[in-house]
Amino acid sequence: MERHVPSRATTPNKSSTAHARSDMLENSVRRKVLHLASSYNSKQKSKKVLMYQLFMILQATLSTKLCNFTSKNGFVWTVLDSFSLANKNHYKAQPLFQGYPVNQNSFKWKKFRLSQPIMNSTLSHSTHVRATCNFNTDGVVTRDYLRGKTTDLNFLLSPQDSCENMEYINIRGYDCYNCTARNYQIINWHLHFDSYYIDPCQFTRLSASNDAVQLPGGEDNFGYYQTINPLHRCKSGNDATTQWWFGAQ
To answer: Which pTM was predicted?
Structure first.
């Protein structure tokens, strides 16, 4: 990394100070991430792969919030996309397979996305994908949550309108394991799961009789949010947040 040479001017150089603080912060975060990586005990995943993932993230942002080491089952997760319901219009037409980097150098749970090259690199070292609601305030809660394999739900490759296998999916308390669920993502739609128009997928427990909202276009979960059901934790209020992650065990 190129080092900044301090200014010799008698008047403090604001640019020099900013660079110095940036270097100090980067070194501090780098040490913390190295410590986390070295202390992470994985029988399946080599530390070299884990380190590569983390340093790819550090190149984009100086925030350890991007990596979650404390989830169940020994997963390491990297957040790709996070936004509040109040910011839904910024994300509604931004699918995850096209570039839309937001706040990479100043991470914010209410408005963030990694760049496409870093997403692609993270995917190459990942085995799983998940969606969470309000992770910034609640951590991992399995109500309004999904988890699947990247081999089943690779949303970086192309548009989707299909039934994809999920290891687990929960929408407003209705759930299933190892079943297919209906998801959508096209050139101007953020990835989302519709809990009203679900046929012919296996996850068919949600319908109008179970409070799924039909109009104006079927209840949208984990993204897009044209049709909102406030009983879903990701849509419970303007400050509610949605996250998409890649992970490896």
So the answer is: 0.76
- Backbone region of residue 109 per phi and psi (left: phi > 0; alpha: psi in -120 to 50; beta: other values): alpha
Q: Identify which of 113, 119, 86, 109 has the alpha carbon closest to the alpha carbon of residue 101.
A: 113
Tokens of 17: 């100070």
DSSP secondary-structure letter at 42?
-
Q: Which two tokens stand for residue 103?
A: 């706040």
- Which residues lie closer than 8 Å to 176 by C-beta, 6 or more apart? 166, 168, 169, 202, 203, 205
Tokens 């999920």 correspond to what residue? 166
Give the residue-averaged pLDDT of 203-212: 64
- Separation of alpha carbons 115 and 99, rounded Å: 6
| Residue 200, token pair as written in the block | 């012919």
C-alpha triplet 27, 32, 33: angle, nearest 5°:
95
Q: How do the domains of the chain map onto residue ranges?
A: 14-248
Model confidence pLDDT, tens digit, residues 48-88: 455 445 545 544 444 455 677 666 667 888 899 999 999 99
Helix (H) or strand (E) holding 168: strand 160-171
